[in-house]
Amino acid sequence: MQAAQNSTDRDPAESLLDVNNIEVIYNHVILVLKGVSLNVPKGGITALLGGNGAGKTTTLKAISNLLKSERGEVTKGAISYHGKNIHSLDPADLVRQGVIQVMEGRHCFEHLTVEENLLTGAYTRSDGQANVQADLEMVYSYFPRLKERRKSQAGYTSGGEQQMVAMGRALMSRPEMILLDEPSMGLAPQLVEQIFEIVKAVNEKEGVTFLLAEQNTNVALRYAHYGYILESGRIVMDGPAAELRENPDVKEFYLGMSEDGRKSFRDVRSYRRRKRWLS
Length: 279
Fold this sequence. Notes:
It is built from 11 helices and 12 strands. By secondary structure, the chain is α/β, with parallel strands linked by helices. Helix 3 (114-120) runs parallel beside helix 6. The longest helix has 18 residues, at 189-206.
């Protein structure tokens, strides 16, 4: 499969989302994010990479204003969308402005059919049934499997199909930007490639901007244009995806590769313990 062409153009004038030096604390005590800054250009695919517990999901929830439901809050820094601070916006208002998060673990309405799940994504829209129906057909064009299963109860579909439902539901809201959390989690490699191919197609054909959090560094860097690497709540490296793929530290630390060839999992774990990212 052909991966996305990577771009090194980071013109700040084209910025859609800016996260500036944010700090996030849970339960007024636990410091999770420490001075995280990132930029998402309009029309791009930006990857937020790192291992489990690095702070990727917390970063996305800080942007979508979903932290309060988990007793978390942004205590420092600022987040702006189209140059306007969005910290005080209700999550539903943010969806109306074009930002929607696809949660880790898919979170379908299990008792509803696939098509009913998709239509819930259009709940905030007021542009008429004809437009909603047209977008439903657009979603089915990207996810033909969902059209086949449209009358099936979502709770009885496969993990891959539920991931497609979650992404299709997000598209039904006509988003300008999708925050996509761990799309590869629990999926077979072939399905992972299929999901990322769809992300690429939606990005190119519909102009949807993506910020995706992903542990699968290898596949994410083949489809993203730019990447940020999180470690223990801090950004430790960023750059064009093509450059990150060739970076020796990234190759050894995340991809299990070195000049001597592929390293064993035990070697990678040892390297992780030795490597001092946070100077």
